[in-house]
Design goal:
Length: 125
């Protein structure tokens, strides 16, 4: 294999899952697809795993993806992926609650009534 080949400005090398262009770096689409497939596998809605365990399983995947591709300057793409992951987690949680009665009961449990100093009737959700 010849390692001494010339590259043009439009066709840069692709180390670490990023494409290096003349003015910017970006994450390769196949790496994004692999990441999404891993997240889909972990956050399947029909698996009986609770949300805490899903988050524990998901954290190393998220950290590994972000740390391995931090050389790419693409904050917007990371924000879009984070938004996508949060949407998957919300869908997983709603699938676990399934019935509206469970959903309403859980939402009532989450609203803790704490007294705010100076205001006796305030409820903080």
């Amino acid at each position: 294999m010849n390692k001494n080949h010339h590259l043009s400005d439009t066709k840069g090398p692709r180390p670490l899952g990023v494409t290096i262009e003349s003015c910017y770096t970006r994450i390769r689409s196949d790496k994004v697809q692999q990441f999404k497939d891993k997240v889909r596998r972990i956050t399947r809605r029909n698996s009986p795993v609770n949300l805490e365990q899903v988050i524990k399983d998901l954290n190393p995947v998220l950290r590994g993806f972000a740390n391995s591709l931090r050389v790419a300057h693409c904050c917007k793409q990371f924000q879009e992926l984070a938004r996508w992951v949060r949407r998957r987690l919300r869908a997983k949680q709603l699938a676990l609650w399934r019935k509206p009665q469970r959903l309403h009961r859980r939402l009532r449990q989450l609203r803790l009534s704490k007294r705010v100093q100076g205001d006796q009737d305030a409820i903080v959700a």
